[in-house]
Amino acid sequence: MTATTNVADAERLARVALNVAFEPADLELAQQVSAHGAVAVCRRLIDTGKLGSRSAEAVARLDAVDPADELERAHRSDLRFVVPGDAEWPSQLDDLEHAADVTEGRGGVPLGLWVRGPVRLDSLADSVAVVGSRSATDYGTTIAREISAQLAAERWAVVSGAAYGIDQAAHRGALAGGGVTVAVLACGADRFYPAAHERLIGHLAEHAAVISEAPPGAAPMRLRFLARNRIIAALSRGTVIVEAAPRSGALNTASWTDAISRPVMGVPGPVTAMTSAGVHVLLRRGATVVTNAGEVLESVGASGEHLAIDLRGPERPRDRLSMTQQQVLEAVPLFRPSGLESIARIAGLGTAETERHLADLTRNGFAERSSTGWRLSAYARS
């Protein structure tokens, strides 16, 4: 590991070295770095040959890393390494330091994030994660696109993982809505995974941001996907799950979201669809039901800032009547007129009160009076 005389540079280089030598989301390592700093952790590893459960093998990997060279090669690939303390560092990630242990032995605040693209990480304070099944249905991808497009239109960034299914639909929806969307990958930020999404990821790298905790060149692995999920959760104000089977990786993202006390939201699907079975489990356990971006923003926005409007059928003229007036109107026959006493008896009211309301209903066009009594008007029947 190359030495340096500048403290800030030394900390960055030490974090690069540890990032390359160890797997992402090494909880023990993250806790040591958080407590003592990366420079001290590297020095202790090299001087003593161990750090907690870390062995001589780990020291050998660390000693083989040239962090200055890693940064130079990353720079040539248009990557930057953002670390805690940088102006660009997204402070919301710091909540991971106190998160419950979701994946055994994995977690903690990242040592740093490799970023490719012009969007700064500190601009993602107002962002929502939209994730879900890779094997999504047309229903799921349509909902993910619509929610993401509406969020983008409200100037909220959309965070997802660039995977097949819901992830790609979320990215494309946000782009269609003219907003910002960033992808967090389980491989190096200089790679395209899945390969079929090279154009999408390339577009995000050119116009938004592609983010990874894994060092440049790193291959996608299962543990790295689980580590990636906590970054998606922690970057965002809340997480929306659109379709997830009972063992979907999206449920791991939901668990990380809950662990840092952020809103977990789920879009319900058909009860017969396995693609939504995992979402329904979340909903039974207390996740918030959402069906559109307005409901999402109600959950993640400041109190009273985004109040979703409950859907109602079209207002009918009789909706403006008082309950007693509606009670009398219900007693008025459709076609054959009835007398006052008959209407009062059916309405369960006295004749004087009924007559007063019938006069109001007639005056307002809801009832018609003839020589034999009252009946509903065409206006009331509409």
From TrEMBL:
It comes from the Bacteria. InterPro entries: DprA, DrpA_SLOG. Residues 81-300 form the Smf/DprA SLOG domain. Belongs to the DprA/Smf family. GO terms for biological process: DNA-mediated transformation. It holds the Pfam family DNA_processg_A. This is DNA processing protein.
